[in-house]
Amino acid sequence: MLLAEGFIPLRLVSNMNIPMLNLIDQYQQINEEINTVIQQVLTSGAYINGPAVRQFEENMEKYLGVKHAIGVASGSDALLLSLHALGIGKGDRVIVPTFTFFATAGAVSRMSGVPVFADIDQKTYNMDLDQVENILEKDRNKEIKAIIPVHLFGLPVDMKRVMDLADKYGLFVIEDACQAINADICSSSPDPDHGNQKAGTIGDTGCFSFFPSKNLGCFGDGGMIVSNDDDLAADIGILRVHGSRPKYYHSVVGYNSRLDTIQAAVLNVKLKYLQEWTDKRRNVAAVYNKAFQAAELLDKVKCPEVLDGHVFHQYVIEVENRNSLIEYLNQKGIGSAIYYPVPLHLQECFKELGYQKGDLPIAENACQRVLALPIDPDLSEDAIAYLVDSIKQFIVSSK
User: Fold this and answer.
1) Beta-strand runs (E) in 160-314
2) What's this model's pTM, rounded to 2 decimal places?
3) Residue 380: is it exposed, middle or buried by C-beta count within 10 angstroms (0-12/13-18/19+)?
4) Residues in Cβ contact with 235 at an 8 Å cutoff, skipping those fewer than 6 apart
5) For the domain 2-19+273-397, what is the CATH code?
């Protein structure tokens, strides 16, 4: 076994097939349960806002320890509705990391707000809170209304410090936990007020995505907003159904953003397995790190630290000659992906904000070097050994 004996060279083994994502195997493991609940929805006729939706909301309230969980159509909508409910509008500035999925900043722009991009911490890839504090110090006109910390790749942001900054500068906090379901923030926030809580449960709202590739994924789009604020949760509940309550009476202009009943039924099944899958992901990450160390690659490959609370939505390394490595891995039957090739402050749609290349250098450098490797919970030690050995072969041959 790899953990006991160290790195296993597999140069004599023919190519293995290691996809970046293996959703079919996961489905096959629980297909009877999944098929049963889908059939129940189909025969019930309750396709919109059926009982499975409220059941899933209640399950998530209990699982995360929050007062309110509101199912919505996607993680992107979760961000959008949170901003709307908090009153973020035209000209309001919102601090977001530049190194994350587009939806975080896109939601701010869709509300006619202005994204204020922050660079990232080189070790964690989460937003640099020192830089965030500097940005807030310079905000003399109090134009910054909110901050969206992103728990990137499944590693929690230091939420104690975020909340301290929010209290000091009067900010709303929207946690983007779309990649961090089940992540525990207690290790980075030992304060009793914030310890022993899950990512997404501390800010004014927490946003989750159930896109199929997520650690808790459905069979299409799906999302959720959680909050401990009764009034805020009520407003979000109205916004997700065209601003209507009661039906056909509209107090505000809202959205059509409902979590489908079939997706909720699937998620009710998968939620039972989330902790098991999380533990397996953490173990896979630990095996990866031991394999890279045993292969004497740590001077060539930057590996993520296996920190407490991390749920490893992605296992991301940094390497030189990344694009050539991707081609080599493809030839070896190994999938990989780049998250993310272009930082948000350099995206064409944000060019009017005036950011230039070099403004946020840590994120810009990461975009040239990061590579996500397969992190399936059931990825075998032999597969990891083959993958790491393939990377070593590439590095040796590139000298």
Assistant:
1) 172-176, 205-209, 223-227
2) 0.93
3) middle
4) 85
5) 3.90.1150.10
